[in-house]
Write a structure and sequence with these properties.
The protein is an alpha+beta fold. It has one domain: 3-Layer(aba) Sandwich (Aminopeptidase), CATH 3.40.630.30. It contains four helices and six strands, in the order ααβββαβαββ. Strands 1-2-3-4-6-5 form a six-stranded mixed beta sheet, sandwiched between helices. A hairpin with a 2-residue loop joins strand 1 and strand 2. Bound molecules: coenzyme A. Coenzyme A binds next to strand 3, helix 3, strand 4 and helix 4.
């Protein structure tokens, strides 16, 4: 999925050059999700086609169990980040897969770092231990972002995906969100 694929194109149209603290991004992300996406769907501002419905369902599902945030600036969405289960099998329930997408015009302004920061804070609060990211290679910006936040490369799947006319490697990156607790870990806590 390319960045911006899940919101109307105009919503990603412009972005002012400004860095936000993680707390602001988190607050605006919540406001966006509550008001813009659901509200716009309900009052028909955006066409409630299958894709939008599926997206809304995924946001609701994974926003509740994990985390899903968007960054909005002057009424425009400039990026989003989310976490989903790493693997549906029970042993992996403390681990998450994370992704972040920033509108091209807002690249390099700290929005990706801020969104990920807010996402990881939320995941820690909810009791998750590991964040994992699969990056189709090459992707200098994404590797740079993940490594700058402490992710480590733990493996590479060779020629595992067909994308943009070629077989691509995917690098797997991992970040420890919280240290291992002693004994049996407490269950991750969904939103209340
Ligand atoms: C990867 C992506 C999310 C980065 O978001 P961003 O908001 O532009 O990144 P930030 O401005 O927050 O940069 C944070 C750090 O990431 C690294 N980084 C960002 N862009 C980079 C680039 N082009 N080259 C190398 N490192 C880069 C730097 O370490 C940077 O820290 P610095 O500003 O102190 O040098 C963004 O380029 C994007 O959405 N790309 C397309 C979608 C994508 O590949 N998503 C990742 C899927 S796993």
């Amino acid at each position: 999925m390319r960045h911006g694929a899940w919101v109307p194109g105009h919503a990603l149209a412009s972005a002012a050059a400004q860095r936000w603290p993680a707390s602001t991004v988190l607050a605006l992300g919540c406001v966006f999700l509550a008001i813009f996406l659901v509200g716009a769907l309900l009052i028909g501002m955006i066409r409630p086609d299958d894709r939008a419905r599926k997206l809304a369902a995924r946001i609701e599902r994974y926003g509740a169990s994990h985390a899903w945030l968007a960054a909005e600036r002057e009424g425009k969405v400039v990026g989003y980040a989310y976490a989903t289960p790493f693997n549906e099998r029970p042993a992996y329930r403390w681990s998450t897969s994370v992704s972040v997408y920033i509108a091209e015009e807002a690249h390099g302004e700290g929005v990706g770092r801020a969104l990920y920061g807010a996402l990881f804070d939320r995941l820690r609060e909810r009791g998750f231990r590991m964040a994992c990211a699969g990056i189709t290679l090459p992707n200098e910006a994404s590797v740079g972002l993940h490594e700058s936040l402490g992710f480590e490369l733990v493996g590479v799947n060779r020629e595992i995906g067909w994308k943009e006319g070629a077989w691509r490697d995917v690098g797997w990156y991992q970040l420890e969100l919280s240290p291992a607790p002693a004994g049996t870990p407490p269950e991750p806590r969904p939103s209340v």
